[in-house]
Amino acid sequence: AGFIARSLPLDDPATLALASLCTEQGRLLHRGPSIIRRGRSAGRPGDPRAAGVIEKRLTQLEARLAARLGPVRLALHSRAGDCEPWLAAFLALERGAGIARRAAEPLRTAIREGHRRGAVRLVSLSAGETIVAMSGWLVAERRGYGLACVHDTRLAAYAPHRLLLRRVTALAALEGLTRFDVGAGCHPGTEALWPETREFADFALAIGGPTRRALFDRAMRSHYS
């Protein structure tokens, strides 16, 4: 009866084309709830003063974390056999942080398939022998899209998610990504590292003849009201 697209970026050409096509055809395009993801674009570093302040603060926090647990290092898990151990460690870190993922299988499927195709990057940040933060993101057409991010909440005083994002920022620059949206779970306190915001929303539109479209439109108005 209808077509539902989840989490489309409002500024993406495909989203704009969909809206334009619906207008031309006289179809109602229903917009659902939206979320804001932080991001950054190449050549737009944001406020250099704020970036300098956060850089100095993160250097201090990383030194304190290293003094407590051991050297801080980032690992990029790119080998074929790295995916399953990374997933197991990631989900374990989520459980330790008190995150109850209701549907872990979609994440597993997306990461396994993306990693097999060479389109997903998996990283972990360790201090000594302890993994303190992990992240995975999709890369396509020189753009990065954060899939998942988690950190050890017991070490929140050292801001491990920010330490991780600082390293991810450097990796994104080395890979030549023109745009990067950070994944959920990494937002707090990342404004200086990821100065831009990007809005995503769900959209629904009816397909079929006038009767079916009218029924679907009424259902969507009720659902999103």
Write the layout of secondary structure elements.
Layout: E1 2-9, H1 13-25, E2 29-41, H2 48-69, E3 72-76, H3 83-96, H4 104-116, E4 120-127, E5 130-140, E6 143-151, H5 160-175, E7 179-181, E8 196-206, H6 210-224
Parallel strand pairs: 6-7
Antiparallel strand pairs: 1-8, 2-7, 2-8, 3-4, 4-5, 5-6
Helix pairs in contact: 2-5, 3-4
Order of SSEs: EHEHEHHEEEHEEH
CATH 4th-level superfamily of the largest domain? Gcn5-related N-acetyltransferase (GNAT)
What is the CATH class of the largest domain? Alpha Beta
**What does the overall shape look like?**
elongated
What is the number of E strands?
8
Q: What are the low-pLDDT stretches, counting only 5+ consecutive residues below 50?
A: none
Mean pLDDT rating: 87
CATH topology of the largest domain: Aminopeptidase
What is the helix fraction of residues, given as a range?
A: 40-55%
The chain-level structural class is alpha+beta
Please explain how this structure is put together.
The chain has two domains: 61 residues, no CATH class; 150 residues, Gcn5-related N-acetyltransferase (GNAT) (Aminopeptidase, 3-Layer(aba) Sandwich), CATH 3.40.630.30. 41% of the residues lie in helices and 30% in strands. It is built from six helices and eight strands, in the order βαβαβααβββαββα. Strands 1-8-2-7-6-5-4-3 form an eight-stranded mixed sheet, with helices on both faces. The mean pLDDT is 87.
